[in-house]
Amino acid sequence: MRAVRIEEFGGPEVLVPVEVPDPVPGPGQVLVRIAAAGVNRADALLRAGSYHRAGRPPLIPGAEAAGTVAALGEGVTGFRAGQPVIAFGGAESPGYYAESAAVSARQVAARPDGLDPIEAATLPIAWLSAWYCLRRLAKVTAGETVVVKAAASGVGTAAVQIAAEAGARVVALAGSAERSAWAGEFGAADVVDTSRHTDDGEVEEVLRLTGGRGADVVLDTVGGPSLRRSLCETAHGGRVVSLANVALAPTTLDTRDFYPKNIAILGFQLTNLQIHGYDPRPDLRELAERVAAGRYRVPVETVLPLERAREAHERLESRGNRGKIVLSMA
Q1: At 272, which helix (H) or strand (E)?
Q2: Burial of 293 (0-12, 13-18, 19+ CB in 10 A)
Q3: What distance in Å separates the CA atoms of residue 7 and residue 47, rounded to the nearest whole number?
Q4: What does the pLDDT read at residue 247?
Q5: 211, exposed or middle or buried, with CB in 10 Å at 0-12, 13-18, 19+?
C-alpha cells in the first residue's frame, strides 16, 4: 500500500512516499481503509523529532483519519465491514498517512451518515480538544465571556463555534487583521488583531471589551509568554485552560496575577488524557453528529494527495493557512 514515512527526523523534506506491506488486524484491532488524514502541528513536531512521545524512525505520521472498516481482528464486535468510521491516535497510534491502518478498536468511532470523510478527518484532534476544554474542563455556560487565542487556528475556529453555541460571548484574538476578521465569521462577538497591540496592550484591550472585569474563561492555545497575559485577562473566579505551547518558549508567571483572583489554571493534553483512561469516543460521536447536522462549520482550506505530504507540512509551518489541511488517499 501507499504511505508517507519519516526515515529520519528533519524538515518537511524527510516525508518520503513509500510502498509498505498491507497491515493485518490483530486481536482487538480494526483495519481501517483510510480516505483522508488530517495534518496537525503534532505531526510536524513528530517529524522534527520534537514530539515528547515520538518513537524512532522509520515512522508513519498522522494521528487522525476517516475512512471505512476493511476487516476486523479477533474479538472485535460493534463494527462491520464497509462501515464509515473516524480513527484517532493515542498511546498506540499506527500513523494515518497511509492507505490503511490496523488500529485498536478503542481508537475507532462510528462516522455519522452524511459526514464527509474530509471533514470527519479533522475532528479527533483540534475539534475534540476544543470541545473537551470548553465543555468538560471549563464547563462554559450561557452568559459567560470566553476569550479564544489564536482564534483563526484549527482549535480556535472550533472553540469559537462551540463557545458561541453554548451561549457565551466570544472574544476572538488572532495575529493579523485578516485572520481576526475571519475568526469573527464563526460567531465571535468581538475580534482583536493582536498584531496591533503590545503584550500589555492586548491585556488592556481584553479588559476594555469586558468592562474592566476580564473574561470568565480564557482558552490559551499559544503558551509561552501568552499564558501570563491570559491570567491578567481573566476575571475573578475565572478559568484559564492551557492546552499548547506552540510558542515553544518558557512561561514566567507572577503568582500575584492569579491567586488573588481565585483563578483556576487547567491543563490539557489529549494523548496523556487518553493514557490515563479518557475514552474520546462518546465525545467524538456527539461532536461528529453536530457537524453532520450542520450545527458547526469545519473550515478545510487545502486537500492534497497523500504523496504531497511534504507540501502540506510546508504550508502548515508557514502559518499562512486559514482552515485545515487534509491529505486525501483518492
Answers
A1: helix 270-275
A2: exposed
A3: 9
A4: 63
A5: exposed
What whole-number distance in Å separates Cα of residue 327 and Cα of residue 98?
Answer: 10
Task: Give the position of cell 504531497.
Answer: 308
pLDDT tens sequence across 261-290 = 999 999 999 988 988 999 999 999 999 999
Surface-to-core class of residue 34, CB atoms within 10 Å of its CB (0-12 exposed, 13-18 middle, 19+ buried): buried
In whole angstroms, what is the distance from residue 304 CA to residue 301 CA? 10
Alpha carbon distance 210, 31 (integer Å): 50
| Residue with the three cell numbers 455556560 | 141
Query: Residue with C-alpha cell 475539534?
Result: 127
| Residue 303 pLDDT | 96
**Going along 41-144, which residue ranges are E strands?**
64-72, 84-88, 100-104, 108-110
d(CA 67, CA 79): 13
φ/ψ of residue 83, rounded to 5: -70, 130
The backbone torsions φ and ψ at residue 153, rounded to the nearest 5 degrees and listed phi first, read -80, 175
CA dihedral 8, 11, 12, 14 (to 10 degrees): -20
H or E segment to which residue 274 belongs: helix 270-275
Dist CA 5 CA 46 (whole Å)? 11
For residue 252, what is its C-alpha cell? 514566567
- Residue 147, sorted as left (phi over 0), alpha (psi -120 to 50) or beta, turns out to be beta
Evaluate whether 37 touches 103 at the Cβ level (below 8 Å). Answer: no
Q: Which among 195, 176, 181, 183 has a CA at the least distance from the CA of 219?
A: 183
Radius of gyration of the CA atoms of the chain, in A:
20
| pLDDT exceeds cutoff 80 at 319 | no
Residue with the three cell numbers 490515563: 276
What is the grid cell recorded at 5?
514515512
Q: What percent of the chain has pLDDT over 90?
A: 78
Burial class (CB in 10 A: 0-12, 13-18, 19+), 114: exposed
| pLDDT, tens digit (0-9, with 9 covering 90-100), for 196-215 | 999 889 999 999 999 999 99
